[in-house]
Amino acid sequence: MTILTKILETKKQELAGLRTDFPETDYPAKPRLADLLRLAKPAGVIAEIKRSSPSKGVIRAEVDVIGQAKRYEQAGASAISVLTDESYFNGSIDDLHEVAKQVAVPVLNKDFIVDKKQIDRAKNAGATVVLLIVAALDDEKLHELFAYTEERGLEALVEVHDEEEMKRALALGAELIGINNRNLSTFEVSLENTEKLASFFTDEQLFISESGIHSPADAQRAVKTGVKGLLIGESLMRANDPGAFLDSLFRQEEAR
Ligand SMILES: O=C(O)c1ccccc1NCC(=O)[C@H](O)[C@H](O)COP(=O)(O)O
Description:
Number of helices: 12
GO molecular function: indole-3-glycerol-phosphate synthase activity; phosphoribosylanthranilate isomerase activity
Number of strands: 10
Oligomer: single chain
Strand content: 15-25%
Radius of gyration: 17 Å
Pathway: Amino-acid biosynthesis; L-tryptophan biosynthesis; L-tryptophan from chorismate: step 4/5
Order of helices and strands: HHEEEHEHEHEHEHEHEHEHHH
Largest sheet: 8 strands, parallel, barrel
Domain Indole-3-glycerol phosphate synthase: 5-248
Low-confidence stretches: none
Bound molecules: ligand LARABZUK
Distance between the termini: 47 Å
CATH superfamily: Aldolase class I
Number of domains: 1
Protein name: Indole-3-glycerol phosphate synthase
């Protein structure tokens, strides 16, 4: 059984007890991620709060979530991604709720969504974007959850890993398409994956390279393919100064 299959089974088991209500909150207004990425030069960064992961174990368990999110925002991140899965990533929906109260950039609920209830939870907790992983959903479910995401006034970041999934995301009409460089079955990470799928890029969609970006060289390599966004977790969580790390990513690019 792959890790993705295990995670999805856990998600289905958790549905019955899933808490979707949050106190009525005046969240700071947040622009659309798609609008920010269209304007980003050369690309925007979605900066992630990630305490631990199945592939790397503990990354930074004791993190000041609000402080970290504010550092990302101050350093110019286009959005904050918060991993909310508890069982495999040691995340929490409360992390996302606290972040959403404090920042004025889009907030992505990074989780494994299999049901509308999770989209309601994301919305009520203050997220403005949710992740829909194509590999986790059959076409009927993918369409249903995509339509529901839009109905609830959220943006969907539709994640793919290979050609077949890319075709399904394009057929869906998704505006934000994330290419995960990590194979969720083997954990192998390669930026080549973004390069391989770049032949599918169109002007209508916005493409985001996800996972395995650890240096300015990686960021610039990914951006060369035409992606307008980078999703970065581990390196930002391990950085002593996440602002300086973000600042460094496109410095050489600008100097050219
Ligand atoms: O990170 C993992 O080990 C992982 C395992 C199984 C499913 C998903 C996983 N990660 C989720 C992500 O997509 C990443 O958190 C995100 O793209 C950032 O990646 P990185 O910069 O490499 O931390």
